[in-house]
Amino acid sequence: MRVLGVDPGLTRCGVGVVEGEAGRPLTMIDVGVVRTPPDAELGHRLVAIEEGIEQWLDAHRPDRVAVERVFSQHNVRTVMGTAQASAVAMLCASRRGIPVVLHTPSEVKGAVTGSGRADKAQVGAMVTRLLRLDAPPKPADAADALALAICHIWRAPAQNRLQRAVALHRRPSAHPPKGRTS
């Protein structure tokens, strides 16, 4: 499975592509950051993010796109920018029919480090180790994008089993339940 991880942000949108499957060594394909000037008009910044994500999708043809789920922060302006960049990434993938998955920061940290409260340095160190890199990707947004991709590759088998179980549970039964009738 090839996954494009996206750590959304208006100024720096981390992107990273990881290939592999759960239980096997993973391979980093590419990592980087889509940047926009902080003084540019919002619409232009969103277009620049879209163009950057489209280039990554063209270049790497991922099977899935994993995006960090926006969570509540004290700074409303920051959360709005993150949400807008996240929506652009989801739109780009969905337009191409590529499934999009969302993971919370604590899910990603927990999957990669074993602790949902890990700091950026711990995430960077584990990404470096798991992908057998010489040094942590810089900036931290790039390492976070790789962590998102790793998280999804590792969690996908369990999520797929859960989805199948829920679908089976929701499927109408050929036989009505036995018991009392009204």
Q: Which term fits the overall shape?
A: globular
Q: What share of residues are in beta strands?
A: 15-25%
Q: How many individual helices?
A: 5
Tell me about the biggest sheet? 5 strands, mixed
* Widest beta sheet: strand line-up: 3-2-1-4-5
Which blocks of ≥5 consecutive residues have pLDDT under 50? none
Instruction: Write down the overall mean pLDDT.
Output: 91
Topology order in helix (H) and strand (E) letters: EEEHEHEHHH
Percentage of residues assigned to helices: 40-55%
Q: How many beta strands in the DSSP annotation? A: 5
Question: What class would the helix/strand composition place it in?
Answer: alpha/beta
Taking all Cα atoms into account, the compactness measure Rg is 19 Å
**Straight-line distance between termini:** 51 Å
Notable characteristics:
single chain
Describe it.
This protein is an alpha/beta fold and 182 residues long. Helix content is 49%, strand content 18%. The protein has five helices and five strands. The protein has a five-stranded mixed sheet with strand order 3-2-1-4-5. Helix 1 crosses helix 2, helix 3 crosses helix 5 and helix 4 crosses helix 5.
Q: How is this fold's topology laid out?
A:
Blueprint: E1 2-7, E2 12-19, E3 27-35, H1 42-60, E4 64-68, H2 76-95, E5 100-103, H3 105-113, H4 120-130, H5 140-170
Parallel strand pairs: 1-4, 4-5
Antiparallel strand pairs: 1-2, 2-3
Helix pairs in contact: 1-2, 3-5, 4-5
Quick synopsis:
The protein is of the alpha/beta class. The protein is 49% helix and 18% strand. It contains five helices and five strands, in the order E-E-E-H-E-H-E-H-H-H.
